[in-house]
Amino acid sequence: MSSARYRPDTPDKVFAIADCNNFYASCERVFRPELNDKPVVVLSNNDGCVIARSNEAKAIGIKMGAPYFQIERFAKQHGVAVLSSNYALYGDMSRRVMQILAGFAPRIEVYSIDECFFDLTGLKTDLTDYCLKICAVVKQWTGIPISIGIAPTKTLAKLANRLAKSGRFRQCPVLDWHTLDDTDAVLAETALNDLWGIAASWQSQLALLQIADALALKQADPKRLRQHFSVVMERIVHELRGLSCIDLEEIPSPRKQILTSRSFGEKLTGYDDLCAAVTYFATRSAEKCRQHRLAAQALTVFVETSPFDTRQPFYANSATFEFQLPTHDSAQLQRAAQRGLARIYHPGLSYRRAGVLLPELLPDHVAQLSLLSGERSNRSADLMQTLDAINQRYGKSSIRYAREILSQRWRMRQQFKSPSYTTNIRELLTIRI
Ligand SMILES: [Mg+2]
Protein backbone atom coordinates (compact mmCIF):
# COMPACT_ATOMS: atom_id res chain seq x y z
CA MET A 1 0.00 0.00 0.00
CA SER A 2 2.93 2.30 0.55
CA SER A 3 5.33 1.26 -2.16
CA ALA A 4 4.04 3.74 -4.75
CA ARG A 5 5.22 6.76 -2.81
CA TYR A 6 8.33 5.13 -1.47
CA ARG A 7 11.53 5.41 -3.51
CA PRO A 8 12.82 1.88 -3.74
CA ASP A 9 15.85 2.69 -5.89
CA THR A 10 17.43 5.48 -3.88
CA PRO A 11 20.53 4.52 -1.91
CA ASP A 12 19.16 6.13 1.26
CA LYS A 13 19.34 4.19 4.43
CA VAL A 14 16.35 2.50 5.97
CA PHE A 15 16.28 1.77 9.68
CA ALA A 16 13.62 -0.03 11.64
CA ILE A 17 13.17 -0.52 15.35
CA ALA A 18 11.09 -3.28 16.85
CA ASP A 19 9.82 -2.70 20.37
CA CYS A 20 7.96 -5.31 22.41
CA ASN A 21 4.66 -3.94 23.70
CA ASN A 22 4.48 -3.80 27.52
CA PHE A 23 7.26 -6.33 27.47
CA TYR A 24 7.30 -7.66 31.06
CA ALA A 25 3.50 -7.86 31.22
CA SER A 26 3.43 -9.57 27.80
CA CYS A 27 5.98 -12.19 28.96
CA GLU A 28 3.78 -13.03 31.94
CA ARG A 29 0.69 -13.24 29.73
CA VAL A 30 2.27 -15.77 27.39
CA PHE A 31 2.10 -18.31 30.20
CA ARG A 32 -1.02 -16.99 31.89
CA PRO A 33 -3.44 -16.08 29.11
CA GLU A 34 -6.14 -15.40 31.69
CA LEU A 35 -4.27 -12.13 32.26
CA ASN A 36 -5.02 -10.94 28.71
CA ASP A 37 -7.15 -7.76 28.77
CA LYS A 38 -6.67 -7.51 32.56
CA PRO A 39 -4.56 -4.83 34.25
CA VAL A 40 -1.11 -6.25 35.05
CA VAL A 41 1.75 -4.60 36.92
CA VAL A 42 5.26 -5.89 37.61
CA LEU A 43 7.19 -4.80 40.72
CA SER A 44 10.89 -4.00 41.15
CA ASN A 45 13.34 -6.10 43.19
CA ASN A 46 12.01 -6.72 46.69
CA ASP A 47 8.53 -5.89 45.43
CA GLY A 48 9.25 -2.21 46.04
CA CYS A 49 7.52 -0.27 43.30
CA VAL A 50 5.84 -0.57 39.90
CA ILE A 51 8.32 -0.92 37.01
CA ALA A 52 6.02 -2.17 34.23
CA ARG A 53 2.35 -1.79 33.43
CA SER A 54 -0.03 -3.22 30.89
CA ASN A 55 -2.16 -0.73 28.93
CA GLU A 56 -5.13 -1.59 31.15
CA ALA A 57 -3.10 -0.74 34.28
CA LYS A 58 -2.07 2.58 32.71
CA ALA A 59 -5.69 3.31 31.84
CA ILE A 60 -6.88 3.02 35.44
CA GLY A 61 -4.20 5.46 36.52
CA ILE A 62 -1.45 3.35 38.09
CA LYS A 63 1.73 5.40 37.81
CA MET A 64 5.19 4.19 36.88
CA GLY A 65 7.35 3.98 40.01
CA ALA A 66 4.40 3.95 42.41
CA PRO A 67 5.40 2.20 45.69
CA TYR A 68 3.54 -1.08 46.06
CA PHE A 69 2.24 -0.34 49.55
CA GLN A 70 0.52 2.76 48.19
CA ILE A 71 -1.37 0.96 45.43
CA GLU A 72 -1.96 -2.36 47.21
CA ARG A 73 -5.58 -1.65 48.19
CA PHE A 74 -6.44 0.02 44.90
CA ALA A 75 -4.97 -2.94 43.01
CA LYS A 76 -7.09 -5.42 44.96
CA GLN A 77 -10.26 -3.38 44.39
CA HIS A 78 -9.64 -3.21 40.65
CA GLY A 79 -8.54 -6.79 40.16
CA VAL A 80 -5.02 -5.83 39.11
CA ALA A 81 -2.65 -8.78 38.71
CA VAL A 82 0.50 -7.89 40.68
CA LEU A 83 3.71 -9.77 39.88
CA SER A 84 7.28 -9.74 41.16
CA SER A 85 9.84 -9.23 38.43
CA ASN A 86 11.07 -12.47 36.85
CA TYR A 87 14.22 -11.49 34.98
CA ALA A 88 15.12 -15.06 34.07
CA LEU A 89 11.87 -15.25 32.11
CA TYR A 90 12.14 -11.79 30.54
CA GLY A 91 15.78 -12.30 29.57
CA ASP A 92 15.04 -15.60 27.92
CA MET A 93 11.96 -14.33 26.05
CA SER A 94 14.02 -11.34 24.88
CA ARG A 95 16.71 -13.65 23.51
CA ARG A 96 14.06 -15.56 21.56
CA VAL A 97 12.55 -12.40 20.06
CA MET A 98 15.98 -11.04 19.05
CA GLN A 99 16.91 -14.33 17.44
CA ILE A 100 13.81 -14.18 15.24
CA LEU A 101 14.51 -10.56 14.27
CA ALA A 102 18.07 -11.49 13.30
CA GLY A 103 16.60 -13.85 10.72
CA PHE A 104 14.85 -10.97 8.95
CA ALA A 105 17.69 -8.45 8.61
CA PRO A 106 21.38 -8.71 7.82
CA ARG A 107 22.37 -6.25 10.56
CA ILE A 108 20.72 -5.82 13.94
CA GLU A 109 21.51 -3.91 17.12
CA VAL A 110 19.96 -5.22 20.31
CA TYR A 111 19.30 -1.89 21.95
CA SER A 112 17.67 -3.00 25.19
CA ILE A 113 15.91 -6.02 26.64
CA ASP A 114 12.83 -5.28 24.54
CA GLU A 115 14.07 -3.11 21.66
CA CYS A 116 16.09 -3.90 18.57
CA PHE A 117 17.21 -1.70 15.66
CA PHE A 118 17.71 -3.33 12.30
CA ASP A 119 18.84 -2.28 8.87
CA LEU A 120 16.45 -2.66 5.93
CA THR A 121 18.47 -0.59 3.46
CA GLY A 122 18.10 -1.79 -0.11
CA LEU A 123 15.18 -4.09 0.56
CA LYS A 124 13.15 -4.19 -2.66
CA THR A 125 9.78 -4.95 -1.22
CA ASP A 126 7.01 -3.07 0.55
CA LEU A 127 8.52 -2.25 3.92
CA THR A 128 5.25 -2.12 5.80
CA ASP A 129 4.21 -5.55 4.52
CA TYR A 130 7.63 -6.97 5.34
CA CYS A 131 7.51 -5.66 8.90
CA LEU A 132 3.92 -6.80 9.40
CA LYS A 133 5.16 -10.26 8.57
CA ILE A 134 7.94 -9.91 11.18
CA CYS A 135 5.33 -8.91 13.79
CA ALA A 136 3.20 -11.92 12.92
CA VAL A 137 6.10 -14.38 13.12
CA VAL A 138 7.34 -13.00 16.45
CA LYS A 139 3.80 -13.22 17.83
CA GLN A 140 3.28 -16.74 16.56
CA TRP A 141 6.63 -18.13 17.70
CA THR A 142 6.93 -16.38 21.08
CA GLY A 143 3.50 -14.95 21.93
CA ILE A 144 5.00 -11.46 22.34
CA PRO A 145 3.29 -8.56 20.50
CA ILE A 146 5.70 -6.05 18.94
CA SER A 147 5.49 -2.71 17.12
CA ILE A 148 7.87 -1.55 14.40
CA GLY A 149 8.82 1.96 13.28
CA ILE A 150 10.58 2.46 9.92
CA ALA A 151 12.45 5.61 8.81
CA PRO A 152 15.60 6.88 7.07
CA THR A 153 17.31 7.49 10.45
CA LYS A 154 17.36 5.84 13.87
CA THR A 155 15.96 8.97 15.53
CA LEU A 156 12.96 9.05 13.19
CA ALA A 157 12.49 5.27 13.42
CA LYS A 158 12.13 5.62 17.21
CA LEU A 159 9.53 8.32 16.67
CA ALA A 160 7.70 6.24 14.04
CA ASN A 161 7.59 3.39 16.52
CA ARG A 162 6.05 5.67 19.11
CA LEU A 163 3.42 6.74 16.61
CA ALA A 164 2.69 3.14 15.63
CA LYS A 165 2.01 2.32 19.27
CA SER A 166 -0.17 5.37 19.79
CA GLY A 167 -2.44 4.26 16.93
CA ARG A 168 -2.67 7.88 15.81
CA PHE A 169 -2.47 7.22 12.09
CA ARG A 170 -3.93 3.77 11.79
CA GLN A 171 -4.48 0.79 14.00
CA CYS A 172 -1.46 -1.05 12.75
CA PRO A 173 1.65 -2.25 14.62
CA VAL A 174 3.90 -0.93 11.83
CA LEU A 175 4.45 2.68 10.81
CA ASP A 176 6.72 3.69 7.94
CA TRP A 177 7.80 7.34 8.26
CA HIS A 178 8.10 7.59 4.45
CA THR A 179 4.36 7.01 4.06
CA LEU A 180 3.29 10.01 6.15
CA ASP A 181 1.84 12.89 4.12
CA ASP A 182 3.11 15.76 6.22
CA THR A 183 6.04 14.83 8.41
CA ASP A 184 6.64 18.43 9.49
CA ALA A 185 3.15 18.59 10.93
CA VAL A 186 3.91 15.44 12.92
CA LEU A 187 7.19 16.91 14.18
CA ALA A 188 5.41 20.13 15.20
CA GLU A 189 3.18 18.06 17.47
CA THR A 190 6.07 16.08 18.92
CA ALA A 191 7.38 17.24 22.29
CA LEU A 192 11.15 17.34 22.73
CA ASN A 193 11.08 14.77 25.51
CA ASP A 194 9.42 12.32 23.12
CA LEU A 195 12.55 12.36 20.98
CA TRP A 196 15.30 9.78 21.34
CA GLY A 197 18.48 11.11 22.89
CA ILE A 198 17.25 14.46 24.19
CA ALA A 199 18.44 14.74 27.77
CA ALA A 200 15.93 16.20 30.22
CA SER A 201 18.40 18.91 31.20
CA TRP A 202 18.62 20.07 27.58
CA GLN A 203 14.94 20.89 27.29
CA SER A 204 14.98 24.05 29.36
CA GLN A 205 18.10 25.22 27.56
CA LEU A 206 16.46 24.56 24.20
CA ALA A 207 13.41 26.51 25.37
CA LEU A 208 15.67 29.53 25.95
CA LEU A 209 16.61 29.30 22.27
CA GLN A 210 12.89 29.29 21.35
CA ILE A 211 13.04 25.60 20.46
CA ALA A 212 10.01 23.94 21.98
CA ASP A 213 9.11 21.06 19.66
CA ALA A 214 10.73 18.61 17.26
CA LEU A 215 9.98 20.74 14.15
CA ALA A 216 11.71 23.78 15.66
CA LEU A 217 14.69 21.57 16.48
CA LYS A 218 14.78 20.21 12.92
CA GLN A 219 14.84 23.78 11.56
CA ALA A 220 17.51 25.02 13.96
CA ASP A 221 21.10 25.60 12.88
CA PRO A 222 23.01 22.40 13.67
CA LYS A 223 26.40 24.14 13.89
CA ARG A 224 25.06 26.65 16.39
CA LEU A 225 23.49 23.92 18.50
CA ARG A 226 26.74 22.03 18.50
CA GLN A 227 28.38 25.01 20.16
CA HIS A 228 25.62 25.27 22.77
CA PHE A 229 25.37 21.56 23.47
CA SER A 230 27.50 18.93 21.82
CA VAL A 231 27.97 16.95 18.67
CA VAL A 232 25.14 14.69 19.89
CA MET A 233 22.62 17.50 19.43
CA GLU A 234 24.00 18.35 16.00
CA ARG A 235 23.48 14.75 14.94
CA ILE A 236 19.89 14.74 16.21
CA VAL A 237 19.10 17.78 14.02
CA HIS A 238 20.52 16.04 10.95
CA GLU A 239 18.66 12.87 11.82
CA LEU A 240 15.37 14.77 12.08
CA ARG A 241 16.08 16.04 8.55
CA GLY A 242 16.37 12.47 7.34
CA LEU A 243 20.16 12.38 7.13
CA SER A 244 21.47 9.33 8.95
CA CYS A 245 24.36 10.09 11.36
CA ILE A 246 23.91 7.37 13.96
CA ASP A 247 24.70 3.93 12.65
CA LEU A 248 23.81 0.56 14.10
CA GLU A 249 26.07 -0.60 16.88
CA GLU A 250 26.28 -4.23 16.00
CA ILE A 251 28.96 -5.18 18.48
CA PRO A 252 28.15 -4.20 22.04
CA SER A 253 30.99 -2.24 23.61
CA PRO A 254 32.93 -4.42 26.02
CA ARG A 255 31.84 -4.07 29.61
CA LYS A 256 34.19 -1.98 31.67
CA GLN A 257 32.97 -3.22 35.02
CA ILE A 258 30.58 -5.68 36.60
CA LEU A 259 28.46 -4.78 39.60
CA THR A 260 26.35 -7.30 41.48
CA SER A 261 24.50 -5.91 44.46
CA ARG A 262 21.15 -6.08 46.20
CA SER A 263 19.10 -4.30 48.77
CA PHE A 264 18.04 -6.93 51.27
CA GLY A 265 14.43 -7.98 51.82
CA GLU A 266 15.05 -7.60 55.56
CA LYS A 267 17.94 -5.88 57.26
CA LEU A 268 20.81 -8.19 58.12
CA THR A 269 22.99 -8.14 61.22
CA GLY A 270 24.76 -11.53 61.29
CA TYR A 271 28.15 -12.09 59.69
CA ASP A 272 27.06 -15.41 58.18
CA ASP A 273 24.09 -13.77 56.46
CA LEU A 274 26.28 -11.13 54.88
CA CYS A 275 28.98 -13.63 54.04
CA ALA A 276 26.47 -15.81 52.17
CA ALA A 277 25.25 -12.74 50.27
CA VAL A 278 28.66 -11.46 49.17
CA THR A 279 29.77 -14.99 48.29
CA TYR A 280 26.76 -15.26 46.01
CA PHE A 281 27.52 -11.83 44.48
CA ALA A 282 31.12 -12.88 43.85
CA THR A 283 29.95 -16.10 42.18
CA ARG A 284 27.46 -14.28 39.95
CA SER A 285 30.14 -11.72 39.02
CA ALA A 286 32.55 -14.52 38.13
CA GLU A 287 29.88 -16.15 35.95
CA LYS A 288 29.20 -12.86 34.15
CA CYS A 289 32.96 -12.46 33.61
CA ARG A 290 33.23 -15.88 32.01
CA GLN A 291 30.14 -15.34 29.92
CA HIS A 292 31.64 -12.16 28.44
CA ARG A 293 35.13 -13.66 28.23
CA LEU A 294 36.56 -11.16 30.67
CA ALA A 295 38.88 -11.40 33.65
CA ALA A 296 38.97 -9.25 36.79
CA GLN A 297 42.08 -7.48 37.96
CA ALA A 298 40.53 -6.41 41.27
CA LEU A 299 37.44 -6.89 43.42
CA THR A 300 35.69 -4.42 45.69
CA VAL A 301 33.22 -5.57 48.32
CA PHE A 302 30.97 -3.03 50.03
CA VAL A 303 28.27 -2.92 52.73
CA GLU A 304 26.00 -0.16 53.94
CA THR A 305 23.35 0.50 56.54
CA SER A 306 20.23 2.54 55.82
CA PRO A 307 20.79 6.31 55.87
CA PHE A 308 17.18 6.68 57.10
CA ASP A 309 17.59 4.43 60.13
CA THR A 310 17.45 6.67 63.23
CA ARG A 311 18.39 3.89 65.66
CA GLN A 312 21.99 3.53 64.52
CA PRO A 313 24.66 5.67 62.91
CA PHE A 314 24.95 5.39 59.12
CA TYR A 315 27.82 3.15 58.13
CA ALA A 316 29.16 2.40 54.68
CA ASN A 317 32.52 0.91 53.86
CA SER A 318 34.35 -1.02 51.19
CA ALA A 319 37.50 -3.08 50.74
CA THR A 320 39.37 -3.74 47.51
CA PHE A 321 41.65 -6.60 46.56
CA GLU A 322 43.97 -6.69 43.62
CA PHE A 323 44.71 -10.04 42.06
CA GLN A 324 48.24 -11.01 41.14
CA LEU A 325 46.93 -12.32 37.86
CA PRO A 326 43.59 -11.41 36.27
CA THR A 327 41.00 -14.06 37.10
CA HIS A 328 37.45 -15.22 36.53
CA ASP A 329 37.64 -18.14 38.92
CA SER A 330 34.61 -18.25 41.23
CA ALA A 331 36.54 -19.55 44.24
CA GLN A 332 39.20 -16.86 43.94
CA LEU A 333 36.67 -14.05 43.70
CA GLN A 334 34.73 -15.51 46.62
CA ARG A 335 37.82 -15.62 48.82
CA ALA A 336 38.59 -11.99 48.04
CA ALA A 337 35.00 -10.96 48.81
CA GLN A 338 35.00 -12.87 52.10
CA ARG A 339 38.34 -11.46 53.20
CA GLY A 340 37.16 -7.97 52.32
CA LEU A 341 33.93 -8.44 54.23
CA ALA A 342 35.81 -9.57 57.35
CA ARG A 343 37.69 -6.27 57.23
CA ILE A 344 34.69 -3.97 56.93
CA TYR A 345 32.02 -5.88 58.90
CA HIS A 346 31.00 -4.30 62.20
CA PRO A 347 28.92 -6.48 64.50
CA GLY A 348 25.73 -5.01 65.95
CA LEU A 349 24.71 -2.98 62.88
CA SER A 350 21.74 -3.70 60.62
CA TYR A 351 22.89 -3.75 57.00
CA ARG A 352 20.58 -2.74 54.19
CA ARG A 353 22.69 -3.42 51.14
CA ALA A 354 25.89 -5.10 50.04
CA GLY A 355 27.58 -5.77 46.76
CA VAL A 356 30.60 -6.83 44.78
CA LEU A 357 32.19 -4.69 42.08
CA LEU A 358 34.78 -5.83 39.58
CA PRO A 359 36.12 -2.42 38.63
CA GLU A 360 38.76 -3.29 36.06
CA LEU A 361 38.19 -5.96 33.48
CA LEU A 362 40.38 -7.29 30.73
CA PRO A 363 39.40 -9.51 27.81
CA ASP A 364 40.49 -12.95 29.00
CA HIS A 365 42.63 -13.62 25.95
CA VAL A 366 44.60 -10.48 26.81
CA ALA A 367 44.90 -11.65 30.39
CA GLN A 368 46.43 -14.89 29.08
CA LEU A 369 45.19 -16.75 32.08
CA SER A 370 46.59 -20.17 31.40
CA LEU A 371 49.85 -19.12 29.79
CA LEU A 372 51.00 -17.16 32.82
CA SER A 373 50.00 -19.42 35.62
CA GLY A 374 50.41 -22.90 34.25
CA GLU A 375 48.69 -26.03 35.43
CA ARG A 376 46.79 -24.54 38.35
CA SER A 377 45.04 -22.18 36.02
CA ASN A 378 44.20 -24.95 33.55
CA ARG A 379 42.53 -26.86 36.34
CA SER A 380 40.60 -23.78 37.37
CA ALA A 381 39.47 -23.22 33.77
CA ASP A 382 38.31 -26.84 33.51
CA LEU A 383 36.42 -26.62 36.79
CA MET A 384 34.71 -23.36 35.85
CA GLN A 385 33.74 -24.74 32.46
CA THR A 386 32.21 -27.77 34.16
CA LEU A 387 30.31 -25.64 36.69
CA ASP A 388 28.93 -23.40 33.95
CA ALA A 389 27.91 -26.39 31.84
CA ILE A 390 26.06 -28.04 34.74
CA ASN A 391 24.27 -24.83 35.72
CA GLN A 392 23.35 -24.11 32.15
CA ARG A 393 21.89 -27.55 31.69
CA TYR A 394 20.10 -27.96 35.02
CA GLY A 395 19.24 -24.36 35.89
CA LYS A 396 20.97 -21.52 37.71
CA SER A 397 22.68 -22.48 40.99
CA SER A 398 22.08 -26.22 40.51
CA ILE A 399 25.61 -26.63 41.74
CA ARG A 400 27.13 -24.04 44.03
CA TYR A 401 29.62 -23.34 46.75
CA ALA A 402 28.64 -24.21 50.33
CA ARG A 403 29.22 -20.67 51.59
CA GLU A 404 26.40 -19.41 49.40
CA ILE A 405 23.81 -21.49 51.23
CA LEU A 406 25.05 -20.62 54.72
CA SER A 407 22.06 -18.28 54.86
CA GLN A 408 19.15 -17.41 52.59
CA ARG A 409 17.95 -14.48 54.65
CA TRP A 410 19.45 -11.90 52.33
CA ARG A 411 17.43 -13.08 49.35
CA MET A 412 14.90 -10.79 47.75
CA ARG A 413 11.31 -10.57 48.70
CA GLN A 414 9.45 -11.87 45.67
CA GLN A 415 6.01 -12.68 46.89
CA PHE A 416 4.36 -12.74 43.50
CA LYS A 417 7.00 -14.15 41.18
CA SER A 418 5.88 -16.33 38.29
CA PRO A 419 7.82 -19.56 37.57
CA SER A 420 10.88 -19.49 35.31
CA TYR A 421 8.89 -21.28 32.63
CA THR A 422 11.54 -21.29 29.94
CA THR A 423 14.83 -21.52 31.84
CA ASN A 424 14.30 -23.96 34.70
CA ILE A 425 13.27 -27.50 33.96
CA ARG A 426 11.58 -27.85 37.36
CA GLU A 427 9.34 -24.89 36.58
CA LEU A 428 8.11 -25.88 33.14
CA LEU A 429 4.51 -25.10 32.37
CA THR A 430 2.32 -28.08 33.28
CA ILE A 431 -0.90 -28.79 31.47
CA ARG A 432 -3.66 -30.86 32.97
CA ILE A 433 -6.15 -32.51 30.67
MG1 LIG B 1 8.75 -1.82 25.05
List keywords for this structure.
433 residues, alpha+beta, Alpha-Beta Plaits, MutS, DNA mismatch repair protein, domain I, Dna Ligase, domain 1, 3 domains, five-stranded mixed sheet, five-stranded antiparallel sheet, 40% helix, disordered N terminus, binds magnesium ion
Structural summary, described in words:
This protein has 433 residues and is an alpha+beta fold. The protein has three domains: 156 residues, Reverse transcriptase/Diguanylate cyclase domain (Alpha-Beta Plaits); 64 residues, MutS, DNA mismatch repair protein, domain I (3-Layer(aba) Sandwich), CATH 3.40.1170; 148 residues, Dna Ligase, domain 1 (2-Layer Sandwich), CATH 3.30.1490. The protein has 15 helices and 13 strands. It has a five-stranded mixed β-sheet. Strands 9, 10, 11, 12 and 13 form a five-stranded antiparallel β-sheet that branches. A three-stranded mixed β-sheet has the order 3-2-4. α6 links the parallel β7 and β8. The chain is globular and about 65 Å long. The two termini are 45 Å apart. The N terminus is likely disordered. It binds magnesium ion (MG). The site of magnesium ion has 4 residues, from β1. The site of magnesium ion (MG) has 4 residues, from β1.
In short:
With 433 residues, the protein is of the alpha+beta class.
| CATH classification, class level of the largest domain | Alpha Beta
Calculate Rg over CA atoms: 25 Å
Provide the succession of SSEs. EHEEHHEHEEHEHEHHHHHEHEEHEEHH
If you average the pLDDT, what whole number results?
Answer: 87
Main sheet: strands, sense, barrel: 5 strands, mixed
Number of domains: 3
Beta-strand residue percentage: 15-25%
Structural class: alpha+beta
Number of strands: 13
Q: Whole-Å distance between the termini?
A: 45 Å
Can you tell me the CATH topology of the largest domain?
A: Alpha-Beta Plaits
Can you tell me the residue ranges where pLDDT is under 50 for at least 5 consecutive residues?
A: 1-10
| Small molecules bound | magnesium ion
Strand order of the largest sheet: 5-6-1-7-8
